[in-house]
Fold these 2 entries.
Entry 1:
Amino acid sequence: MLEFDGLGFSHDPGQDPGRWLFRDVSHKLAPGEVLTVLGPNGRGKTTLLRCVAGLTTPTEGRVRADGAVGFVPQSHHTTFAYTALDMVLMGRVRHLRALATPGRRDHELAYGALGRVGIGHLADRDYPTLSGGERQLVLIARAIAAQGPVLVLDEPASALDLRNQGRVLDLLRGLADEGLAIVLTTHHPDHAMEIADTAMLMFGGTDVRIGPADELLTDSAVGALYGVRAHTLVLNEDPGGAPRRVIVTRYDQELPS
Ligand SMILES: Nc1ncnc2c1ncn2[C@@H]1O[C@H](COP(=O)(O)OP(=O)(O)OP(=O)(O)O)[C@@H](O)[C@H]1O
């Protein structure tokens, strides 16, 4: 379970009026729930995620989680020559006694997590030599190996190719179905429609809308959020199966701001 209540953040709260990135944001995620956060660049998605993960202190409000919150940053660089396996083993740290080194079970879980994100073959590679997408997969594996009940991921698919985007979305949905509560940001409404139970649209300041993803993610809401024209397409890919709704945008048709 993850709950945030009255969450607000401003870099200059003393200003009148204060310039709030977001304010009065509340939601309670049940185990198994995926919440997807959408909003334009600079709207405060990363700041909100960092508040939820306990890495940034919110200006207002509080966060409560049943257990450790795993955080997967948008990108990560290190010059230290850790291997991919070492990076994933770091996710096990809170399970180790003081000064203990990872044991057989930790290694099994780390290899298992690398396998789950499809990069078991990269275990012994030096992390700084991996591509951006490969590094993103290592960080997701690290969060999986940590075995916490809550995962918070900042644009986890941003550096991934189309096939790996699908794999990671499937993986996250699968982890939620195993009982994890998951919060992620994305710039792709389709990713939200694919896996989210709940969507959060950050229109700015106090206008932050939270609700069931299939109700909130309409072409008019997505269009208004980004200032573009958006259209819904209904795909009947599987005869006898439920039609799938996707939102496409016309990049050449900005709405007047
Ligand atoms: N120290 C600071 N002082 C003032 N503004 C800051 C400071 N640090 C960050 N900001 C601003 O806060 C805003 C929110 O940043 P944040 O990274 O949360 O946005 P985001 O929605 O995740 O953006 P993106 O989609 O580009 O990743 C941005 O406009 C950023 O420039």
Entry 2:
Amino acid sequence: MTILDKIIEHKIKEVATRKEYLPISKLEQRPLFDIAPLSAKAWVTSPNRSGIIAEFKRKSPSKGLINGNVKVSDVTSAYVEAGASAISVLTDEEFFGGSVDDLLASRGVHRAPLLRKDFVVDEYQLIEAKSIGADLVLLIAACLEPKKLKELAMTAKNLGLEVLMEVHNEDELKGHLNEHLDLVGVNNRNLKTFEVSVETSKRLSSLIPNEFLKISESGISDPSTIRELKDFGFDGFLIGENFMKTEDPGKACKEFIEAI
Ligand SMILES: O=P(O)(O)OC[C@@H](O)[C@@H](O)c1c[nH]c2ccccc12
């Protein structure tokens, strides 16, 4: 059983419990459910912004504890201040040490597009994402059948959320593309082996149709990599650990953006 299988197995149980505890009708009553969403697509391509999607991640299955000493509100507001185009907050508790409360805390301190980073397996999580103030959601091709991914993408769009689909190889990309996606992310980290290679982004770039924004995800630690990836047509860059592993992630993000 791979780590991804374990995460999904756990997630299905977790969602069943959440649904019982807080039904959809209650989520729809939350005040944030009705706020107008922000467009990550617009912010990622804005000439006034960096294209960096800066992530708040305390721990991960591949690295263990990354940073247990910083506050999500401090870090994510500093990311926005530094010029990030969007913010990603992990909401998975079991494997990444995040929470829905982390995303809510982040929503309270800035008005940049906010990605709910989790393993979406059920439409409940999309409604929940909207109810806590997220603007976009991640759908991972490796976790979802093409038909299911497309249905979830359509539901997300109907809620006013944008959709980032994540792939890490040619087959996932070809099999899962559909008209409801906004951004396509290439994960440089193989979720089965944890190996990281930016070459994956370069290899897949020409296979992503131009109607989708191209995002390169994971393992980026050098501003020169951003310049290289831009030449391959990438618009956005998802960076977590490189910032989070420092004492002051906001400052690390600022220095990185200044060096692009
Ligand atoms: O910390 P990194 O290597 O900069 O990676 C960030 C982000 O891409 C990574 O956290 C990620 C990409 N896809 C995911 C799916 C689930 C959880 C986490 C992720």
